[in-house]
Amino acid sequence: MTNIDLDSMSLEELKALQKDVNKAVDGFEGKRRKEALAAVEAAARENGFTLAELTGQPSKKSKLVSPPKYVHPENPEMTWTGRGRQPEWMKDAIENGRSKDEFLIK
After folding, report:
1. Model pLDDT for residues 35-44, shown as the tens digit of each residue
2. In terms of domains, do 13 and 47 share one?
3. Could you tell me which residues come within 8 angstroms of residue 51 by beta carbon, excluding any fewer than 6 positions away?
4. Coil, strand or helix: which one is 83?
5. Rounded to whole angstroms, what are the CA distances from 42 to 25, 37, 38, 48, 50?
6. Consecutive H or E run containing 27
7. Alpha-carbon gap, residue 36 to 32, rounded angstroms
8. pTM of the predicted model, to two decimals?
9. Residue-range definition of the domain harbouring residue 25
10. Long-range interactions of 10-15: CB distance < 8 A, separation 24+
């Protein structure tokens, strides 16, 4: 370890050193956290589980997909879940006096 003579350093040098030390500490903790997480995930996999299954948290990979709720009357491949932005075909139909209920998938 390097011995640093703090008494001979200026305030600017001390602040720069403090910034470098804080950055090194944060990096060290982040690296240790990643290593620990990788070890826990490996142990879960060895036992046939994912970490999300063991902690009860939803996995980032397994996002729930909503089933379509509405269908285009002429093109059944065009659907909408009812979430997010309305598709143009739905906007156009509503502007022409039609109801969303007319497009519900039964």
Report:
1. 999 999 999 9
2. yes
3. 37, 40, 41, 44, 57
4. coil
5. 26, 9, 6, 10, 9
6. helix 11-46
7. 6
8. 0.42
9. 9-55
10. none
